[in-house]
Design goal:
- The protein has 289 residues and is an alpha/beta fold.
- It is 41% helix and 17% strand.
- The chain folds into two domains: 4-159, P-loop containing nucleotide triphosphate hydrolases (Rossmann fold, 3-Layer(aba) Sandwich); 167-283, no CATH class.
- The protein has a five-stranded parallel sheet. A four-stranded parallel sheet has the order 7-8-6-9.
- The two termini are 45 Å apart.
Amino acid sequence: MVQKETIQIVLITGLSGAGKSVAINSFEDLGFFCVDNLPPTFIPKFAELCLQSEGKISKIALVCDMRGGAFFDDLFESLLELVNNEIEYEILFLEAGDEVLLRRFKETRRRHPLSEVGLLEAIQAEREALGELKGKADKVIDTSELTPQELKKKIFEIYEPEHREKGMPVLLMSFGFKYGVPLDADLVFDVRFLPNPHYVEHLRPLTGEDHQVKAYLWQRKVTRKYFQKLQELLKFSIPYYAREGKVQLVVAIGCTGGKHRSVALARELGRVLSSRYRVHIEHRDIDKF
């Protein structure tokens, strides 16, 4: 059984229209097991099931709000049960100004959970009803001035320390064009114009991971010049992709077979970029013939 202290539960709540949908999607991108609109009565039992998952579910994000109707009244009792069972949790409360919420509801034409009264009255009634819960929140985020991308970035910074330190992860993937371009690539660079080690007999059985192949490529001026421009382009553009809220940037580098040139450049790029970013390297076709 997983030790209870290893489980992380984040309860996402707050005002309707304040960004809970963006929040739950952000937690899902961070690898949390997410449940939207879970009746509070089920929270303790759900937490116990997660503790019995043998580590398969260790990070959980739950959205509970006024959509639950009468069930929402059970929230404080359920949270007390978590405390009694020594299960730790934290509350993330999202809010926004009345005018902002009014505008968002009118733009999306969504139904407010308290829509039996006028929209402004519903917003104010919900704010009052959630006052005590907000007071118990561990973190409160006012989304009035935040775009969805900015809210996502803020959640990443709070709940993923590694993301805060090195930002968006970058996957460098080498591949062979003869086997097809990776479907999930965001950027594709074609290095088939570089000198091909395949035509050098003693290099043919080797890969771009081998020193002899790297030396063969880097002694060519065209390789060094291209690599310099490529790393400059990525260092310039990666922060802008991160600013747009991308969860991961996939950079694909392709040569003919995916064994020599693309592998060597992907590996060297990884070395250069790893001081700034979380870099993962995958050689998709290195073992193919």
